[in-house]
Amino acid sequence: MTVIGILIGGPIGMLAGTYLAEYGRTARISTVIRFVNDVLLSAPSIIIGLFVYELLVIRMGHFSAIAGAVALAIIAMPVTVRTTEDMLNLVPQGMKDASTAMGAYQWRTITSVIYPAARSGILTGLLLAVARISGETAPLLFTALNNQFWSSNLAAPMANLPVVIFQFALSPYPNWQQLAWSGALLITLSILILSNQRAPGGLLAQLRRQALMSASEARFGARPVAVSEATAVKFEVRHLDFYYGSVQALKDINLTLPDRRITAFIGPSGCGKSTLLRVFNRMYALYPGHRASGDVRLDGEDILAPTVRRGCVEVQGWAWCFRRPRPFPCRSSTTWPSDCACRGAFPTVS
What we know:
The protein is α+β, with helices and mostly antiparallel strands. The chain folds into two domains: 2-211, MetI-like (MetI-like fold, Orthogonal Bundle); 233-320 and 332-343, P-loop containing nucleotide triphosphate hydrolases (Rossmann fold, 3-Layer(aba) Sandwich). It has twelve helices and five strands. The chain has helices at 2-23, 28-42, 45-60, 65-90, 93-101, 106-117, 119-134, 138-143, 161-169, 174-198, 203-220, 273-280, and strands spanning 233-244, 247-258, 290-298, 301-302, 342-343. A five-stranded mixed β-sheet has the order 4-3-1-2-5, with helices on one face. Strand 1 (233-244) and strand 2 (247-258) form a beta hairpin. The longest helix has 26 residues, at 65-90. It is elongated.
């Protein structure tokens, strides 16, 4: 029932948290959702059990594991909603803006950029939800009840550890009371083991790091490439000029970007850093009046040639990383925009 409850409440909570953080941050309905979520967070679990009893058990005519799973899902949802919203709000706005600047739709930005960045926090919220519902007894007394025998029928009463602990703890038999203590220890150890898997030294974290290291070695070799060693050229730019209509944004750019190196473009806001990246993937070709001239070669192929497909150029094995813009002291109203036009080679850090 705990697994079914998480499978029901987890996705719903994640979608609701995503809506609150990305789509309806200032909408009126978001205020209502947050208020209801806060009420559910502090509501006694027995109230939720009575609600599901009235909603499902009476209508079905009998107790069932399905009703118990629904009750646990309702308890888990507010925890997942709150943690998902908070974790998504912690993702830097620059990462979202970078994805949007590369032409990604908002749903693609959420699934490919925001979710991976907030994955650890979202999984932690799911584990908190599991810990929240693992020891719930009151809602199960009104929904799943209990079963003295093993049963896999979700439409019938099902045995569950919290109710067994509750019943055995009230019994007058010492051995039953010892079994109740053993059940409580079993739940506690299960939660501690799950929490340890998300810790930096947990088993899953260690296996994940080993898998990433193995994948990196398989792709780039067992050792990092020394800076002094010769490397292939990924991008080669010669005498590049770029125009937004009649305004020249880039002038006579000459640079070489080696493969398997980190290259940083540093300069004041509006100097043409993003414009150069738009030339690399030819996003500028999607807009009328934007044009580039010169020689830009990707792996030896001229991407500005007329034979190259109009639109975006797919650059495999190449990643863009943006940081939040910061004002530079050299920029002033008297030097804008002539001094901000890029001239000569870009400053690079390899």
